[in-house]
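REQUEST FORM: STRUCTURE PREDICTION
Request ID: SP-0412
Submitted by: Lab K.M.
Chain count: 1
Length (residues): 243
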Amino acid sequence: MACQNAPIPPPITFAHRGARLDEPENTIAAFRRALELGARGLESDAWLSSDGEVVLVHDRTFRRGLRRIHVERTTAARLRDFDVPRLADLYDELGRDFELSLDVKARAAGEAILAVARERGDPARLWLCSSSTKYLVGLREKADAGELLVHSRGKRHLQGAVERHAADLAEARIDAMNFHRSDWSTGLVSLFHRFDVRALAWDAQETRHLRSMLEYGVDGLYCDNVARMVAVVDEWTTGDPVD
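STATUS: Completed
RESULT:
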Protein backbone atom coordinates (compact mmCIF):
# COMPACT_ATOMS: atom_id res chain seq x y z
CA MET A 1 0.00 0.00 0.00
CA ALA A 2 1.14 3.58 -0.67
CA CYS A 3 2.32 5.62 2.30
CA GLN A 4 -0.26 7.85 3.91
CA ASN A 5 1.33 11.10 2.72
CA ALA A 6 1.72 10.06 -0.91
CA PRO A 7 -0.40 12.10 -3.36
CA ILE A 8 -3.57 10.38 -4.49
CA PRO A 9 -3.45 9.83 -8.26
CA PRO A 10 -6.37 11.19 -10.28
CA PRO A 11 -9.08 8.65 -11.00
CA ILE A 12 -9.55 7.12 -14.42
CA THR A 13 -12.12 9.10 -16.37
CA PHE A 14 -14.29 6.53 -18.17
CA ALA A 15 -16.51 7.92 -20.92
CA HIS A 16 -19.79 6.04 -20.47
CA ARG A 17 -20.70 4.61 -23.90
CA GLY A 18 -18.26 7.11 -25.38
CA ALA A 19 -19.01 10.82 -25.76
CA ARG A 20 -22.69 10.04 -26.08
CA LEU A 21 -23.77 13.67 -25.74
CA ASP A 22 -21.84 14.52 -28.92
CA GLU A 23 -22.12 11.38 -31.07
CA PRO A 24 -24.35 8.29 -31.17
CA GLU A 25 -23.47 6.13 -28.17
CA ASN A 26 -21.23 3.09 -28.48
CA THR A 27 -19.99 4.07 -31.94
CA ILE A 28 -16.43 4.60 -33.10
CA ALA A 29 -17.27 8.29 -33.52
CA ALA A 30 -18.39 8.52 -29.88
CA PHE A 31 -15.32 6.70 -28.61
CA ARG A 32 -12.99 8.83 -30.74
CA ARG A 33 -14.66 12.03 -29.55
CA ALA A 34 -14.31 10.94 -25.90
CA LEU A 35 -10.57 10.55 -26.31
CA GLU A 36 -10.36 13.91 -28.08
CA LEU A 37 -12.09 15.48 -25.08
CA GLY A 38 -9.44 14.04 -22.77
CA ALA A 39 -11.06 10.91 -21.34
CA ARG A 40 -8.47 8.42 -20.13
CA GLY A 41 -10.87 5.51 -20.47
CA LEU A 42 -13.78 4.26 -22.55
CA GLU A 43 -16.77 2.24 -21.37
CA SER A 44 -19.13 -0.01 -23.29
CA ASP A 45 -21.09 -3.26 -23.15
CA ALA A 46 -19.95 -6.44 -24.84
CA TRP A 47 -22.02 -9.08 -26.62
CA LEU A 48 -21.26 -11.78 -29.16
CA SER A 49 -22.62 -11.54 -32.69
CA SER A 50 -24.10 -14.60 -34.39
CA ASP A 51 -20.68 -15.33 -35.89
CA GLY A 52 -18.84 -15.10 -32.57
CA GLU A 53 -17.38 -11.59 -32.79
CA VAL A 54 -17.25 -9.31 -29.73
CA VAL A 55 -19.49 -6.33 -30.50
CA LEU A 56 -20.08 -3.16 -28.49
CA VAL A 57 -23.71 -2.22 -27.90
CA HIS A 58 -25.76 -1.69 -24.77
CA ASP A 59 -28.73 -4.02 -25.18
CA ARG A 60 -29.36 -7.48 -26.58
CA THR A 61 -31.86 -5.90 -29.00
CA PHE A 62 -32.12 -2.40 -30.42
CA ARG A 63 -34.23 -0.54 -32.96
CA ARG A 64 -33.26 1.16 -36.18
CA GLY A 65 -36.37 2.84 -37.54
CA LEU A 66 -39.10 0.20 -37.53
CA ARG A 67 -36.64 -2.67 -37.43
CA ARG A 68 -35.79 -4.56 -34.25
CA ILE A 69 -32.26 -5.96 -34.39
CA HIS A 70 -31.29 -8.97 -32.27
CA VAL A 71 -27.55 -8.71 -31.65
CA GLU A 72 -26.88 -12.38 -31.02
CA ARG A 73 -28.79 -13.40 -34.17
CA THR A 74 -26.97 -10.93 -36.45
CA THR A 75 -23.50 -11.12 -37.98
CA ALA A 76 -20.85 -8.59 -37.04
CA ALA A 77 -20.73 -7.37 -40.65
CA ARG A 78 -24.46 -6.68 -40.63
CA LEU A 79 -24.26 -5.02 -37.21
CA ARG A 80 -21.55 -2.73 -38.56
CA ASP A 81 -24.14 -1.44 -41.04
CA PHE A 82 -26.05 -0.21 -37.97
CA ASP A 83 -22.93 1.47 -36.49
CA VAL A 84 -22.31 -1.32 -33.98
CA PRO A 85 -18.54 -1.82 -33.89
CA ARG A 86 -16.56 -4.91 -33.07
CA LEU A 87 -14.06 -4.71 -30.23
CA ALA A 88 -11.42 -5.39 -32.89
CA ASP A 89 -12.62 -2.30 -34.79
CA LEU A 90 -12.23 -0.16 -31.68
CA TYR A 91 -8.60 -1.15 -31.29
CA ASP A 92 -7.90 -0.95 -35.03
CA GLU A 93 -9.39 2.55 -35.30
CA LEU A 94 -8.28 4.13 -32.03
CA GLY A 95 -5.19 2.19 -30.97
CA ARG A 96 -4.61 0.99 -27.45
CA ASP A 97 -3.58 4.05 -25.43
CA PHE A 98 -6.63 4.09 -23.15
CA GLU A 99 -8.28 2.17 -20.35
CA LEU A 100 -11.25 0.10 -21.51
CA SER A 101 -14.11 -0.93 -19.22
CA LEU A 102 -16.47 -3.50 -20.69
CA ASP A 103 -19.65 -4.76 -19.08
CA VAL A 104 -19.73 -8.42 -20.11
CA LYS A 105 -23.37 -8.93 -21.09
CA ALA A 106 -23.02 -12.30 -22.82
CA ARG A 107 -21.23 -14.74 -20.54
CA ALA A 108 -19.51 -16.42 -23.47
CA ALA A 109 -18.00 -13.05 -24.42
CA GLY A 110 -15.49 -12.94 -21.56
CA GLU A 111 -12.86 -15.21 -23.06
CA ALA A 112 -13.41 -13.75 -26.52
CA ILE A 113 -12.78 -10.25 -25.14
CA LEU A 114 -9.53 -11.40 -23.57
CA ALA A 115 -8.40 -12.94 -26.86
CA VAL A 116 -9.07 -9.75 -28.84
CA ALA A 117 -7.39 -7.54 -26.23
CA ARG A 118 -4.32 -9.75 -26.17
CA GLU A 119 -4.04 -9.70 -29.95
CA ARG A 120 -4.87 -6.06 -30.72
CA GLY A 121 -5.13 -4.03 -27.53
CA ASP A 122 -3.55 -3.69 -24.12
CA PRO A 123 -4.95 -6.35 -21.79
CA ALA A 124 -3.33 -4.65 -18.78
CA ARG A 125 -5.71 -1.71 -19.39
CA LEU A 126 -8.80 -3.89 -19.74
CA TRP A 127 -11.46 -3.83 -17.01
CA LEU A 128 -14.06 -6.60 -17.33
CA CYS A 129 -17.21 -5.90 -15.33
CA SER A 130 -19.99 -8.22 -14.21
CA SER A 131 -22.70 -8.21 -11.57
CA SER A 132 -21.94 -11.88 -10.81
CA THR A 133 -19.04 -12.70 -8.52
CA LYS A 134 -19.42 -16.37 -9.46
CA TYR A 135 -18.86 -15.48 -13.12
CA LEU A 136 -15.85 -13.33 -12.25
CA VAL A 137 -14.30 -16.10 -10.16
CA GLY A 138 -14.56 -18.42 -13.16
CA LEU A 139 -13.16 -15.77 -15.49
CA ARG A 140 -10.20 -15.19 -13.18
CA GLU A 141 -9.04 -18.72 -13.93
CA LYS A 142 -8.79 -17.75 -17.61
CA ALA A 143 -7.50 -14.19 -17.22
CA ASP A 144 -3.91 -13.21 -16.59
CA ALA A 145 -2.99 -11.39 -13.39
CA GLY A 146 -2.79 -8.02 -15.14
CA GLU A 147 -6.25 -8.29 -16.67
CA LEU A 148 -8.60 -6.50 -14.32
CA LEU A 149 -11.92 -7.87 -13.10
CA VAL A 150 -14.63 -5.67 -11.61
CA HIS A 151 -17.69 -6.54 -9.55
CA SER A 152 -20.36 -4.05 -10.61
CA ARG A 153 -23.37 -4.14 -8.30
CA GLY A 154 -25.48 -1.86 -6.13
CA LYS A 155 -24.54 -1.98 -2.46
CA ARG A 156 -28.09 -2.89 -1.42
CA HIS A 157 -27.86 -6.07 -3.51
CA LEU A 158 -24.84 -7.42 -1.65
CA GLN A 159 -25.38 -10.34 0.67
CA GLY A 160 -23.81 -9.94 4.09
CA ALA A 161 -21.52 -7.26 5.44
CA VAL A 162 -19.67 -4.97 3.03
CA GLU A 163 -16.36 -5.65 4.78
CA ARG A 164 -16.84 -9.39 4.25
CA HIS A 165 -17.58 -8.71 0.59
CA ALA A 166 -14.39 -6.67 0.20
CA ALA A 167 -12.41 -9.49 1.78
CA ASP A 168 -14.05 -12.05 -0.51
CA LEU A 169 -13.21 -9.99 -3.60
CA ALA A 170 -9.60 -9.73 -2.52
CA GLU A 171 -9.38 -13.47 -1.86
CA ALA A 172 -10.90 -14.21 -5.29
CA ARG A 173 -8.44 -11.79 -6.96
CA ILE A 174 -11.21 -9.54 -8.21
CA ASP A 175 -9.58 -6.16 -8.60
CA ALA A 176 -12.30 -3.55 -8.16
CA MET A 177 -15.77 -2.81 -6.82
CA ASN A 178 -18.03 -0.63 -8.97
CA PHE A 179 -20.85 0.97 -6.95
CA HIS A 180 -23.34 3.65 -7.91
CA ARG A 181 -21.85 6.97 -6.83
CA SER A 182 -24.55 7.34 -4.12
CA ASP A 183 -23.28 4.17 -2.41
CA TRP A 184 -19.76 5.44 -1.79
CA SER A 185 -18.38 7.34 1.18
CA THR A 186 -14.86 8.15 2.30
CA GLY A 187 -15.02 5.34 4.83
CA LEU A 188 -16.26 2.80 2.31
CA VAL A 189 -13.55 3.69 -0.22
CA SER A 190 -10.96 3.31 2.55
CA LEU A 191 -12.42 -0.07 3.50
CA PHE A 192 -12.03 -1.49 -0.01
CA HIS A 193 -8.57 0.05 -0.35
CA ARG A 194 -7.59 -1.71 2.86
CA PHE A 195 -8.14 -4.97 0.98
CA ASP A 196 -6.34 -3.64 -2.14
CA VAL A 197 -9.64 -3.56 -4.02
CA ARG A 198 -10.10 -0.46 -6.15
CA ALA A 199 -13.22 1.71 -5.95
CA LEU A 200 -15.08 2.72 -9.12
CA ALA A 201 -18.14 4.97 -9.21
CA TRP A 202 -20.74 4.91 -11.97
CA ASP A 203 -23.34 7.56 -12.78
CA ALA A 204 -21.24 10.45 -11.46
CA GLN A 205 -22.92 13.02 -13.72
CA GLU A 206 -23.18 16.39 -12.00
CA THR A 207 -20.24 18.54 -10.95
CA ARG A 208 -21.13 18.13 -7.27
CA HIS A 209 -21.23 14.34 -7.66
CA LEU A 210 -17.86 14.27 -9.39
CA ARG A 211 -16.29 16.45 -6.71
CA SER A 212 -17.70 14.23 -3.97
CA MET A 213 -16.18 11.14 -5.59
CA LEU A 214 -12.82 12.89 -5.85
CA GLU A 215 -12.98 13.80 -2.17
CA TYR A 216 -13.80 10.19 -1.31
CA GLY A 217 -10.71 9.01 -3.20
CA VAL A 218 -12.30 6.72 -5.80
CA ASP A 219 -10.08 5.19 -8.47
CA GLY A 220 -12.39 5.59 -11.47
CA LEU A 221 -15.41 7.58 -12.59
CA TYR A 222 -18.07 6.83 -15.19
CA CYS A 223 -19.86 9.83 -16.70
CA ASP A 224 -21.93 10.70 -19.79
CA ASN A 225 -20.67 14.30 -19.94
CA VAL A 226 -17.03 13.73 -20.84
CA ALA A 227 -16.05 17.39 -21.04
CA ARG A 228 -17.48 18.07 -17.58
CA MET A 229 -15.83 15.01 -16.04
CA VAL A 230 -12.42 15.85 -17.50
CA ALA A 231 -12.70 19.49 -16.43
CA VAL A 232 -13.65 18.63 -12.85
CA VAL A 233 -10.82 16.11 -12.51
CA ASP A 234 -8.37 18.60 -14.01
CA GLU A 235 -9.56 21.21 -11.51
CA TRP A 236 -9.05 18.78 -8.64
CA THR A 237 -5.59 17.79 -9.94
CA THR A 238 -4.22 21.23 -10.83
CA GLY A 239 -6.26 23.57 -8.63
CA ASP A 240 -7.48 25.54 -11.65
CA PRO A 241 -11.23 26.21 -11.23
CA VAL A 242 -13.77 24.92 -13.72
CA ASP A 243 -15.32 27.72 -15.80
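NOTES: The first helix runs from residue 28 to 36.
Reviewed by: T.R.
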